[in-house]
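Subject: Extracellular solute-binding protein structure
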Amino acid sequence: MSRQLLGAAIATALAVTLTGCGSGGSSSDNALEIWIRQAPDSDSAKTAVKLADAFTKASGIKTKVVALFDDFETKLQQQAAQKKLPDIVINDTAQLGNMHTQGWLQEVDKAKLAGGDKVSEQAWKAAQGSDGKYYGTPFSAQAFALIIRKDWREKVGMEPPKTWDDLATLAAAFTDKDPDGNGQKDTAGFVIPAGTKRGYASWYASSLIYANGGDFVKANGGGKFAPIVNDPKTVEAVQYLQDQFCKAKTVNPGAVSNDTTVTHEVFEKGQGGIYLVGPYVLARFVKSIGTDKIEVVPVPKGPSGGPGTLGEGENVYMMAGSDNVEGQKKFAEYAVSPDGQRIGMNKDANGAIVRLPVNSQVDLGAERQDPRWKVFQEAYANAVYAPPVPNWAPIRQDSADSINTVWADCSANVKTAMDTLNTKLTQELQTQKAS
């Protein structure tokens, strides 16, 4: 059976079996079970526990937080097969379609959600399915920017990059001019999570694609979409990055196999000096590298478009089959409340699970003293969320596989690869009945 047909069969089966099935936490110990995609015992997991404890204190509803990072979606699949989905899942906005098509999510009536009118409309877009209905409650938002080794930039005598040419020149200087002063040629310009796991190559490239006015698919109205990944603006962005891998050789060694976990460490170890990433690692890098050694710079507008970066974040998902529907709703309402948002932001400390607040009543500047957060907030105004196709996950994965290939194989023709990918995405959209 093909991957598409197998996925459809599983989705159909789960949609039937999950209706009315008990959840994992509330049926056993009357606690609302909350899963979050964070490493166990991490600072972020501890922040999630603080949020849950504050909710319990405010509502009287017991909670149980389960923090998982590796193979998060696979473990959810296993719970679904056992009819033991958690009551609440806090997970990426881009996972909405994947979970909805499997029948896991309850619909959210934003008009009846207390505090829902205080959540920004841009954030609500990331909780919307292809049918126009809402299947999550916005919790955290983020856009992307460049975290740069400021001390290295000053060492090589350059200004912050304002164009893609500037960015390439700075990357070359970081690679060739010994910015760390150890007398060895052991540094790179860019650090890139360019592996295919969870679609990271596509995830990284998307901010430069959007900054150049490109895209993966376009909406044609009526819940229908067409791929445009072979558009010249998209090809130009992917080509720019292939040139960094293959011609300028300014990317950290091994990048084509790395995910973000490894890439964070590469940056921290001083193996590269330019990281296009979200704000969630800012506090970590301030602590591990030093606040005076790093700066945050907007992603430069591409030669053919911009400005724009990837927009994403996390939603609170109320999972199907819970026997505590009222508790689910109350937790979602608390999570978007000013109190819930502030706890999740965790001020300037490491472990924030709310990157940029989605509640308009929460002032980022009043909660965080580090002005570098404002660069990310300003970028969010032009952020581009994944489109509300029924399931974005296979589109991101197919894109990552193709983009990773042209970065790993310097003989590969980018335009040809993007033409082939365009055909593959057409087929995927047809499978999803969204073409």
